Amino acid sequence: MFTHLHKYHHRRRWELDSESNLQLTDLEEGQTGIILEIEGGRHSSKRLADLGLAIGVEITMITPSFFSGPVQISVCGSKLVLGRGLASKILIEPNERKQ
Amino acid sequence: MSENNNINIVLAGQGNTGKSAVFNYLTGLHQHIGNWAGKTIEKSEGTLFYKGNTIDVLDLPGIYSFTTYSVEEIISREYIINQKPDFVINVIDSTNLERNLIFTIQLLELECPVILDLNMIDLSRKKGITINTEKINEIFNTPVIPTVASRGSGISEILDKVIELKGKKTSHPIHPYGKEIENCIGQLSESLCDVDLPYPARWVAIKLLEKDKDIVNLIEKEYPEIRKKSKQLCKSLEEIHGHDSSIVIADERSLLAFRITREITTIKRKKISLNERLDAITTNKATGYLLMTIILGGMFLSVFTFGNWFSGLLDGMFKEWHAWWNNIIGVTTLASLGWAAIESIFALFQIAFPYILPFYIILYLLEDWGYIARISFLMDQFMHKMGIHGKACVPFIIGFGCNVPGCLACRIMETKRERFITAVLVTLVPCSAISVIIFGLVGKYVGVWWALGLYLFAVILIFIAGKISSKLLMGEPVELIMPMPDYKTPHLRTILFQTWDALKEFVFIAAPIVIISGVLIHAIDLAGWMPAIASVLSPVTVTWLGLPAITGILLVFGILRKELILVMLAAYLGTTSFANVLTPQQMITLAVVSMFYVPCVATISVLWKEYGWKKAMIVCFVEIVLAILLAGIVKRLLDFVFS
Question: Which of B258, B259, B304, B367 is the most buried (most CB within 10 A)?
Answer without folding.
Answer: B258
